[in-house]
Amino acid sequence: MYLIGLTGGIASGKSTIARRLAEQGAVHIDADRLAREVVEPGTEGLARIRSAFGDDVIAPDGTLDRAALGQRVFGHPEQLATLNAIVHPAVRALTRRLIAEAEQANPDAVVVYDVPLLVEAAVDHPFDLVVVAHADESVRRERLIRLRGFSEADAARRLGSQAADAERLAIADVVIDTDGSIEQTASQADALWERVVRGAP
Predict the structure, then answer these.
(1) Cα(3)–Cα(103) distance, rounded to whole angstroms?
(2) CA distances in angstroms from 124 to 13, 81, 94, 116, listed in the order given
(3) What is the pLDDT of residues 38-69, one digit of tens each?
(4) What is the pLDDT of residue 93?
(5) Where would I find the beta strands (DSSP E) of 41-128?
(6) Binding-site residue positions for ATP
(7) Angle value at C-alpha 46, between 19 and 85, nearest 5 degrees
(8) Which residue ranges are tagged as binding site?
(9) Highest averaged pLDDT of the listed ranges 39-43, 113-117, 139-143, 164-168
């Protein structure tokens, strides 16, 4: 098995890269999706969030009210740390299980673990390669506003809550520049795949 850690700031193009690698044959594990799973109704994670933040972050249907929780934690480091202490260990445990299952199904699998908070969460899986999707902060801010409907203030708060670009770049084995078009990003992902399957990353 070959394990790639894929990270990058919000709106940096990680999903585009992960999708492209999955199309080439990689097993894609999405940390954001796992983070949602570990706080679904009935989970210990959601119970702990309710205990820490109160009923006002729980929607009427019993699911997590992400918008309400986001307002509480983004821009508030202590609150964010409390949330991360609940979610990150649960995601790590689920990830370990999924990686083991992928290896059992195919010992030669290439697994891409798409993890936005690789730096912030001190993710310690035994990566063979760490890939950083990198776009200038101004580009990411514009994407958040134009593509995701964020306000200027919300975009700034979300960008400010994540690791600095320098921290991510410091751990990179490979940097994929995502400032350009989707096609340019996909081309770099294809080149990475060729390097991995040739066994010479």
Answers:
(1) 10
(2) 22, 18, 14, 14
(3) 999 999 999 999 999 999 999 999 999 999 99
(4) 92
(5) 110-114
(6) 11-16
(7) 75
(8) 11-16
(9) 39-43
- At position 57, the amino acid (one-letter code) is V
Q: In what order do the strands lie in the sheet with 129-134?
A: 27-30, 110-114, 2-7, 129-134, 174-177
pTM as predicted = 0.83
Dist CA 77 CA 167 (whole Å): 17
Output b/e per residue, 190-199; b: 16+ Cβ within 10 A: eebbeebeee
Tens digit of pLDDT for each residue in 84-132?
Answer: 999 989 998 999 999 999 999 999 999 999 988 787 666 777 899 999 9
**Per-residue pLDDT, 87:** 93
Q: In this structure, which amino acid lies at residue 42?
A: G
Q: Closest Cα to residue 115, out of 1, 2, 10, 197?
A: 10
In whole angstroms, what is the distance from residue 5 CA to residue 121 CA?
A: 13
Q: How far is it, in rounded angstroms, from Cα 201 to Cα 198?
A: 8
Q: Which two tokens stand for residue 175?
A: 């940097």
DSSP state of 134: E
Domains and CATH numbers, the chain: 2-197 (3.40.50.300)
Please answer whether residues 69 and 49 qualify as being in contact, where contact means their C-beta atoms are separated by less than 8 angstroms: yes
Residue 93 CA to residue 84 CA, distance in Å, equals 14
Whole-number percent of the chain with pLDDT over 90: 65
CB atoms within 10 A of CB 168: 23
Two structure tokens written together for 164: 């600095």
